[in-house]
Amino acid sequence: MGVPFLKIRFVNGLFVQLGLFGLVIAAALAREPNDEWVETDITARAGLRYDVVRFAAKPGQAIRVKLINGDDMAHNLVFTKPGQRQAVATAALALGVDGEAKNWVPDHDAVLWSTPVLPPGEQHVLQFTAPVEPGIYPYVCTYPGHGFLMYGAMYVGVSMPELATDQHVPELARQGKAAQKQFHAWGHKRPLMYRIFMPDASPAAIAVGLKHGQNYCWDAGQCRLRYAWYGGFVDPSPVWRGNGNGLAGVLGTKYWESEMPGTIRVGGGDSEPEFLGYKKVDGQPEFHFRVNDTDVYELITPLHSIIGIQRSFRIPNNTQPVSLPVGPTSRVAFEHSAGKLENGLLTLSAEEARAFTVFIGLIK
Amino acid sequence: MRAAGIGDYYSLENIATPKGLDPQVGGLDFMPNGRLVACFHRGEVYTYDPGKGEWRLFADGLQEPLGIVAINDREVVVMQRPELTRITDTDGDGEADQYKTVCDDFGMTGNYHEFAFGPARDARGNLYVGLNLASSGASIRPELRGEFRHYGQSREGFKASSYGRASGRMYTATPYRGWVLKITPEGEMTPFAPGFRSPNGVGFDLDGRLFVTDNQGDWLGTSKLFHVQRGKFYGHPASLAWTNEWKKGRNPLKVASAEFDAKRIRATVLFPHGLMANSPTQPIPDSSGGKFGPFAAQLFVGEMNRARIVRVMLDKVAGEWQGACVPFYDGAGLGKGNHRFVFGKDGSMWVGQTHLSWVGGQGVQRIKWNGKTPMEVESMKLLRNGFKLTFTKPLATGAGHHDHFQFTRYYYEYRQGYGSPQLGTEAVQIAGLKLLMGDRTLMIYLDKLTPGYVYQLDLNNIAAADGSPLVNALVCYTLNRLTNGDDKAPHLVQK
Question: Do A150 and A208 share a structural domain?
């Protein structure tokens, strides 16, 4: 991400000013303040990241953190006790239907301070006193699924290692400038797609980056979705820096990967699917392929409320029963608009199959 | 005499490309509306308005596109690694929205060397593409596209550690690697001709003949230009795995090269390695009708490794094409990596450069003729007992003398190994010279003419009657056959 890790203003002599305007406030903000404050703005950015991934404070220092939601998804900011980031994020996931009401902040001993969930464009200021015990205090977005990528750390009385080796910040931030590299003259506005060598797919793979940090790999060699991930998109440099002897890197967390070979089946027979290309729909490819002499279209779009994708199939004028391997369905939130699901195989009547939808979401 | 440079006759302009673009050019063409269209290394297709100097993104997301043909103002066909794709701006907003697969009926192993070149379009709209072999410098991926076939080895038996020895430097493991394919506009594919190693240059001349270049390496003693016809075999045996005869798994490495030599078509023109070209690219005919200088209808061929574009002078001998090559544009501001070409309506030549991490360059350049005729060898034709050289301008008085012409001959062995040294090198004595009327044409009679040799001519201190010195003084003629049709050359094969 190449962000400067510190965006801190040390407000020296603030107490002089506060002395003039309101000692009461100062007392409320900082029980035993040192002689300076830490003020930090942390902005939530597209691709599930905070722009500031770490900052330093002294034990007992007064802290003022402003969370700004600069993304088009909802986010919060939760500080936890040292080493408890993943435990808190996981506890938030477990809130399920109660999560929304609790701002996705779990009742967990390790939670120290938290903001509410902020809609896009809003901001919230969090004020507290840094712990007296030195340590590395994580902060994390506990909105479902975000916590695996979207976090940082407050260093209290502990010196920071080099960013590139800091295990308390996300991998992308550790990579620094490399991940920020611009590969095109047209920027990197999502949706975007590359036909490029991808891991765990045939050589005719397509990587697509949708809005809200959603990504998937669709295999044009086999006409099927291979996997989905969230976070960054791909690092194409292993392929592009040379003559193509490399694989693009998946930047983010895979949450679904097809475990069933084969693509959609239309009617009987095992005819090889024939890839016929795609049309861009709002910048997103709608794939077109032919199975058993029947035209099939698949458009994949991002879900908005949770991390996940919607697979919209069209088989116009279909006259035959259809089956679609969709497994795994047990480790993710899975829904389908029509048909019968059994052992990861969705079967649909000829009529149902003309237009149907499958949802894959991160949160069970 | 002052050294003449091609820059005295042509001007060269560097075309600025969009900031942030990796400007390695995979293909160039013109749309009918006069916009240049170019595809680039990271998958973009841009159009360019030469009048305004403005680039506009037309398409993106392609996988190593290495050739483009404009169909109309809204549609292009691009050859990318996995397929031939028809890309259309259906709503006319200047940006493509439809990507139709014209043909992906060939295999991919994921080996980096499986580049896909072309397309070249014939008069009927058929598209011809060239498929690279895989390199023993890398393995194949766990998942392939297409059938696996590798000289009788099983998929399990194919190991990264063994292929170097087992299959030579370049190999095939999925269908039609090492072939030129013909694809109808409707997408019907015919395997057209096997025998290629790295055919990074597919093009038609103005008479509709298909020419393909291939790169020095295993089975190629030096780089080549072939006149390609259906069903013929062009010398690199790896691709034969996809013919019925070889289906059962014969290993070409275990077959005597004489067997392949008997079947193969020899190069129309050999580009002597280290001298003329090391890595030839697209052949393009001069379609300017004279607006680009005195070489109308002749072929130009790009070269990657140096700042050069080569010119080819074809010669039909006993019913078959062979011919000579000569540097055309050397230095004078030209970059390396000269990869793709197109002529503009004004007769200027647009050049796109690339490197793909090998020796080369990047960017777009434009070459214009300034109207002055350079002194050059315009054509070279084989005679029964020598060569007929025609110059672009009358020779200066006294130029028709032995001292100005030095012939050397040598050959490149046809063999499994990587490249071939020049063998059998010897000077060839000039038996006589005769200047024809008009002083532009010179007959040079030689002592020895033998099929299967390159006849290299070095011209010394040649000038035109108007005082202008000869620009390019190195000409290499590939003598496959004599005027009586004799093409026997047993020396080309290792004993």
Answer: no
